[in-house]
TrEMBL record:
<keyword id="KW-0732">Signal</keyword>
<feature type="domain" description="SGNH hydrolase-type esterase">
    <location>
        <begin position="50"/>
        <end position="213"/>
    </location>
</feature>
<dbReference type="InterPro" id="IPR051532">
    <property type="entry name" value="Ester_Hydrolysis_Enzymes"/>
</dbReference>
<dbReference type="InterPro" id="IPR013830">
    <property type="entry name" value="SGNH_hydro"/>
</dbReference>
<feature type="signal peptide">
    <location>
        <begin position="1"/>
        <end position="22"/>
    </location>
</feature>
<dbReference type="GO" id="GO:0004622">
    <property type="term" value="F:phosphatidylcholine lysophospholipase activity"/>
</dbReference>
<protein>
    <submittedName>
        <fullName>Lysophospholipase L1-like esterase</fullName>
    </submittedName>
</protein>
<dbReference type="Pfam" id="PF13472">
    <property type="entry name" value="Lipase_GDSL_2"/>
</dbReference>
<dbReference type="InterPro" id="IPR036514">
    <property type="entry name" value="SGNH_hydro_sf"/>
</dbReference>
Amino acid sequence: MKLLLLTAVLSCTLLTMENMQAQDWAQLEHFREANSDLPALKDNENRVVFMGNSITIGWQHAMPEFFENNPYVNRGIGGQTTPQMLIRFRQDVIDLQPKVVVILAGTNDIAGNTGPSSLKMIMDNIASMAELARANGIAVVLSSVLPAEDYPWRPGLRPNEKIPALNTMIKDYAAANNFIYLDYFRALANSKNGMDKTLATDGVHPTRAGYEIMVPLVKTAIKKALAQT
Protein backbone atom coordinates (compact mmCIF):
# COMPACT_ATOMS: atom_id res chain seq x y z
CA MET A 1 0.00 0.00 0.00
CA LYS A 2 2.81 2.37 0.95
CA LEU A 3 4.63 1.51 -2.27
CA LEU A 4 1.53 2.26 -4.33
CA LEU A 5 1.06 5.58 -2.51
CA LEU A 6 4.71 6.53 -3.05
CA THR A 7 4.47 5.62 -6.73
CA ALA A 8 1.35 7.76 -7.10
CA VAL A 9 3.02 10.74 -5.39
CA LEU A 10 6.11 10.43 -7.60
CA SER A 11 3.95 10.17 -10.71
CA CYS A 12 2.03 13.31 -9.76
CA THR A 13 5.28 15.16 -9.03
CA LEU A 14 6.78 14.19 -12.40
CA LEU A 15 3.56 15.15 -14.18
CA THR A 16 3.55 18.54 -12.46
CA MET A 17 7.18 19.14 -13.45
CA GLU A 18 6.43 18.17 -17.06
CA ASN A 19 3.46 20.56 -17.14
CA MET A 20 5.60 23.38 -15.75
CA GLN A 21 8.22 22.76 -18.43
CA ALA A 22 5.57 22.61 -21.14
CA GLN A 23 4.07 25.94 -20.09
CA ASP A 24 7.02 28.10 -21.26
CA TRP A 25 5.87 30.75 -18.77
CA ALA A 26 7.98 33.56 -20.23
CA GLN A 27 7.11 32.48 -23.82
CA LEU A 28 10.74 32.13 -24.85
CA GLU A 29 9.64 30.10 -27.86
CA HIS A 30 7.43 32.92 -29.18
CA PHE A 31 10.13 34.89 -31.03
CA ARG A 32 12.86 32.25 -31.19
CA GLU A 33 12.43 31.55 -34.90
CA ALA A 34 11.94 35.23 -35.77
CA ASN A 35 15.12 36.09 -33.88
CA SER A 36 17.02 33.44 -35.79
CA ASP A 37 15.68 34.76 -39.11
CA LEU A 38 16.45 38.40 -38.34
CA PRO A 39 18.92 39.76 -40.94
CA ALA A 40 22.42 40.55 -39.80
CA LEU A 41 23.02 44.14 -38.77
CA LYS A 42 24.02 46.42 -41.63
CA ASP A 43 26.88 48.88 -41.27
CA ASN A 44 25.75 51.89 -39.23
CA GLU A 45 22.25 50.43 -38.75
CA ASN A 46 20.46 52.03 -35.81
CA ARG A 47 18.41 49.00 -34.83
CA VAL A 48 15.78 49.62 -32.16
CA VAL A 49 13.93 46.86 -30.29
CA PHE A 50 10.50 47.59 -28.84
CA MET A 51 10.01 45.39 -25.76
CA GLY A 52 6.51 45.18 -24.37
CA ASN A 53 3.09 43.59 -24.22
CA SER A 54 -0.07 43.70 -26.38
CA ILE A 55 0.16 47.48 -26.70
CA THR A 56 3.56 47.04 -28.34
CA ILE A 57 2.66 44.16 -30.67
CA GLY A 58 -0.66 45.87 -31.40
CA TRP A 59 1.30 48.79 -32.79
CA GLN A 60 2.72 46.55 -35.51
CA HIS A 61 -0.75 45.29 -36.41
CA ALA A 62 -2.37 48.74 -36.44
CA MET A 63 0.52 50.53 -38.16
CA PRO A 64 2.76 47.97 -39.90
CA GLU A 65 4.48 50.59 -42.02
CA PHE A 66 5.98 52.16 -38.90
CA PHE A 67 8.08 49.04 -38.38
CA GLU A 68 8.57 48.14 -42.04
CA ASN A 69 9.97 51.57 -42.94
CA ASN A 70 12.32 51.86 -39.97
CA PRO A 71 15.04 49.64 -38.45
CA TYR A 72 12.59 48.72 -35.68
CA VAL A 73 12.09 45.23 -34.27
CA ASN A 74 8.85 44.55 -32.37
CA ARG A 75 9.12 42.12 -29.48
CA GLY A 76 5.79 42.64 -27.75
CA ILE A 77 3.78 39.68 -26.44
CA GLY A 78 0.16 40.11 -25.46
CA GLY A 79 -0.66 39.84 -21.76
CA GLN A 80 2.93 39.79 -20.54
CA THR A 81 4.11 41.15 -17.23
CA THR A 82 7.53 42.54 -16.31
CA PRO A 83 8.96 39.31 -14.82
CA GLN A 84 8.15 37.49 -18.05
CA MET A 85 9.83 40.23 -20.09
CA LEU A 86 12.87 40.17 -17.83
CA ILE A 87 13.32 36.43 -18.38
CA ARG A 88 13.28 36.81 -22.16
CA PHE A 89 15.19 40.10 -22.25
CA ARG A 90 18.52 38.57 -23.27
CA GLN A 91 17.05 36.45 -26.04
CA ASP A 92 14.62 39.05 -27.41
CA VAL A 93 16.65 42.23 -26.90
CA ILE A 94 20.34 41.88 -26.01
CA ASP A 95 21.11 39.10 -28.50
CA LEU A 96 19.61 41.20 -31.32
CA GLN A 97 22.31 43.85 -30.76
CA PRO A 98 20.17 46.97 -31.03
CA LYS A 99 21.48 50.48 -30.47
CA VAL A 100 18.33 51.31 -28.46
CA VAL A 101 15.60 49.45 -26.59
CA VAL A 102 12.20 51.03 -25.95
CA ILE A 103 10.63 49.41 -22.87
CA LEU A 104 6.88 49.72 -22.34
CA ALA A 105 5.76 47.53 -19.45
CA GLY A 106 3.76 47.37 -16.25
CA THR A 107 0.06 47.61 -16.98
CA ASN A 108 -0.47 43.82 -16.97
CA ASP A 109 1.33 43.59 -13.62
CA ILE A 110 -1.16 46.08 -12.18
CA ALA A 111 -3.94 43.98 -13.71
CA GLY A 112 -2.53 40.93 -11.90
CA ASN A 113 -2.08 38.85 -15.04
CA THR A 114 0.57 36.65 -13.41
CA GLY A 115 -0.43 37.18 -9.80
CA PRO A 116 -0.33 40.04 -7.28
CA SER A 117 2.43 42.58 -7.81
CA SER A 118 3.39 45.75 -5.96
CA LEU A 119 4.51 48.90 -7.75
CA LYS A 120 7.99 48.38 -6.30
CA MET A 121 8.15 44.87 -7.77
CA ILE A 122 7.20 46.26 -11.18
CA MET A 123 9.76 49.05 -10.93
CA ASP A 124 12.47 46.61 -9.86
CA ASN A 125 11.88 44.49 -12.97
CA ILE A 126 11.89 47.52 -15.26
CA ALA A 127 15.11 48.72 -13.62
CA SER A 128 16.69 45.29 -14.10
CA MET A 129 15.89 45.36 -17.81
CA ALA A 130 17.29 48.88 -18.16
CA GLU A 131 20.48 47.97 -16.32
CA LEU A 132 20.96 44.79 -18.37
CA ALA A 133 20.62 46.86 -21.54
CA ARG A 134 23.13 49.46 -20.38
CA ALA A 135 25.62 46.77 -19.33
CA ASN A 136 25.48 45.50 -22.92
CA GLY A 137 25.95 48.89 -24.56
CA ILE A 138 22.29 49.46 -25.42
CA ALA A 139 20.72 52.89 -24.86
CA VAL A 140 17.39 52.80 -23.03
CA VAL A 141 14.06 54.55 -23.47
CA LEU A 142 11.74 53.99 -20.50
CA SER A 143 8.13 54.58 -21.48
CA SER A 144 5.36 55.66 -19.19
CA VAL A 145 2.53 53.17 -18.83
CA LEU A 146 -0.43 54.19 -20.97
CA PRO A 147 -3.58 55.51 -19.27
CA ALA A 148 -6.33 53.10 -18.27
CA GLU A 149 -9.37 54.10 -16.24
CA ASP A 150 -10.14 50.41 -15.63
CA TYR A 151 -9.37 46.98 -17.09
CA PRO A 152 -12.33 45.41 -18.95
CA TRP A 153 -11.07 41.90 -18.16
CA ARG A 154 -10.53 42.64 -14.45
CA PRO A 155 -12.45 45.70 -13.24
CA GLY A 156 -12.06 47.43 -9.91
CA LEU A 157 -8.25 47.49 -9.57
CA ARG A 158 -7.99 51.31 -9.80
CA PRO A 159 -5.35 51.49 -12.55
CA ASN A 160 -6.22 55.17 -13.02
CA GLU A 161 -4.59 55.72 -9.60
CA LYS A 162 -1.81 53.12 -9.74
CA ILE A 163 -0.53 53.88 -13.24
CA PRO A 164 0.26 57.56 -12.50
CA ALA A 165 2.07 56.47 -9.32
CA LEU A 166 4.13 53.91 -11.26
CA ASN A 167 4.90 56.47 -13.95
CA THR A 168 6.29 58.83 -11.32
CA MET A 169 8.59 56.03 -10.16
CA ILE A 170 9.73 55.31 -13.73
CA LYS A 171 10.32 59.00 -14.43
CA ASP A 172 12.32 59.50 -11.23
CA TYR A 173 14.39 56.37 -11.88
CA ALA A 174 15.11 57.48 -15.44
CA ALA A 175 16.22 60.93 -14.29
CA ALA A 176 18.46 59.51 -11.57
CA ASN A 177 20.15 57.08 -13.98
CA ASN A 178 20.34 59.16 -17.18
CA PHE A 179 17.84 57.06 -19.13
CA ILE A 180 15.43 58.67 -21.58
CA TYR A 181 11.89 58.95 -20.21
CA LEU A 182 9.06 58.82 -22.76
CA ASP A 183 5.77 60.26 -21.54
CA TYR A 184 2.91 58.72 -23.49
CA PHE A 185 0.55 59.16 -20.55
CA ARG A 186 0.26 62.93 -20.66
CA ALA A 187 -0.42 62.91 -24.40
CA LEU A 188 -3.16 60.26 -24.22
CA ALA A 189 -4.91 60.70 -20.85
CA ASN A 190 -8.35 62.21 -20.35
CA SER A 191 -9.67 63.80 -17.16
CA LYS A 192 -10.27 60.35 -15.59
CA ASN A 193 -6.73 59.11 -16.28
CA GLY A 194 -8.12 56.88 -19.01
CA MET A 195 -8.20 57.09 -22.79
CA ASP A 196 -11.12 58.28 -24.90
CA LYS A 197 -12.69 55.67 -27.19
CA THR A 198 -11.27 57.36 -30.27
CA LEU A 199 -7.79 56.58 -28.91
CA ALA A 200 -8.55 53.18 -27.35
CA THR A 201 -11.86 51.46 -28.04
CA ASP A 202 -11.57 49.23 -24.96
CA GLY A 203 -9.86 51.91 -22.88
CA VAL A 204 -6.52 50.05 -22.83
CA HIS A 205 -5.28 49.18 -26.34
CA PRO A 206 -4.68 52.12 -28.67
CA THR A 207 -6.43 52.51 -31.99
CA ARG A 208 -4.48 53.71 -35.00
CA ALA A 209 -5.36 57.26 -33.89
CA GLY A 210 -3.76 56.54 -30.53
CA TYR A 211 -0.61 55.15 -32.10
CA GLU A 212 -0.39 58.18 -34.39
CA ILE A 213 -0.02 60.33 -31.27
CA MET A 214 2.68 58.00 -29.97
CA VAL A 215 4.81 57.95 -33.14
CA PRO A 216 6.42 61.41 -32.93
CA LEU A 217 6.96 60.98 -29.20
CA VAL A 218 8.87 57.72 -29.56
CA LYS A 219 10.86 58.99 -32.54
CA THR A 220 12.03 61.97 -30.49
CA ALA A 221 12.94 59.68 -27.59
CA ILE A 222 14.87 57.32 -29.88
CA LYS A 223 16.81 60.25 -31.34
CA LYS A 224 17.80 61.33 -27.82
CA ALA A 225 18.81 57.77 -26.92
CA LEU A 226 20.92 57.39 -30.07
CA ALA A 227 22.78 60.54 -29.07
CA GLN A 228 23.88 58.65 -25.94
CA THR A 229 25.47 55.80 -27.92
